Amino acid sequence: MQDAITPEDRSAKGPAEGHDGPVTLINKFVVPPGRDERFVELWTAASHYFRRQHGYLSLRLHKAVSPDAQYRFVNVARWNSLEDFQAAHATEEFRATVTADGWEEFPSTPALYEVIVADDAEPAHASS
Amino acid sequence: MQDAITPEDRSAKGPAEGHDGPVTLINKFVVPPGRDERFVELWTAASHYFRRQHGYLSLRLHKAVSPDAQYRFVNVARWNSLEDFQAAHATEEFRATVTADGWEEFPSTPALYEVIVADDAEPAHASS
């Protein structure tokens, strides 16, 4: 089973022409009911790797409250550049992290975005 | 065609038992290549409605840079409570906004989340 999801499947693709400015990863996870604790455990371990990497800016892990959400967990993570994001996904430690036992249970759909409209009325470090 | 997507389809469902604390809408849009300008025009008009509503906190509209992204636009919007979010989606003005001519071209998949892990290293109002 573990070979079914490769490290490449866990990496959002960048545009061939490159990209200027920050990028935002939006990574959607399919997590079966009752498996939240195991998923969060694995995700947290992986997040510790990413938080240490050059160019990492922020992350927010979202858990669905809508009962019909197809993706019950969504990570939104900001990186300083496409190059930094790609470098963090090209290491042996990344490959070891995302092929750790258990990840095969949680398919993900990662994609990279740029923010084109931002309206942040709330204060920094608002409680969440 | 316009009847194919109802205002209910444009509204993320909340849990029957309610929810304490802020909620985050993650709304994914299918936008055909070449139709970005029209989509952003319609979305911007709708966003002006939401920004005026009680309990609205913030929004970020993301545009894909990954060439294979299924959803080329994703809105991430924070609200102070489930009740505020639902009230904003229960008005006649909401119904008129999301049934405006042109929206039928852009199917959306809205769902509500709570933030369970937040690490915001970047300063408030960072350039984006």
Task: Just name the CATH architecture of the domain at 31-74 and 81-109 in chain A.
Answer: 2-Layer Sandwich
Unreliable stretches covering 5 or more consecutive residues of chain A: 124-128
| Head-to-tail CA distance between termini of chain A | 36 Å
Helical percent range of chain A? 10-25%
Describe the structure in your own words:
2 copies of one chain form a homodimer. By secondary structure, chain A is of the alpha+beta class. Chain A has a domain at 31-74 and 81-109: Alpha-Beta Plaits, CATH 3.30.70. Chain A is built from 3 helices and 4 strands; from the N terminus they run E-H-E-E-H-H-E. Mean pLDDT of chain A is 91; it is low at 124-128. The first copy, chain A, has helices at residues 36-51, 82-88, 92-98, and strands at 23-29, 56-64, 73-79, 108-120. In chain A, strand 2 (56-64) and strand 3 form a beta hairpin. In chain A, helix 1 (36-51) packs antiparallel against helix 3 (92-98). Strand 4 (108-120) of chain A pairs antiparallel with strand 2 (56-64) of chain B.
List the main descriptive attributes of the protein structure presented here.
homodimer, 128 residues, alpha+beta, Alpha-Beta Plaits, 4-stranded antiparallel sheet, 28% strand, globular, disordered C terminus
What's the SSE blueprint?
The structure is a homodimer of 128-residue chains.
Chain A: E1 23-29, H1 36-51, E2 56-64, E3 73-79, H2 82-88, H3 92-98, E4 108-120
Antiparallel strand pairs in A: 1-3, 1-4, 2-3
Helix pairs in contact in A: 1-3
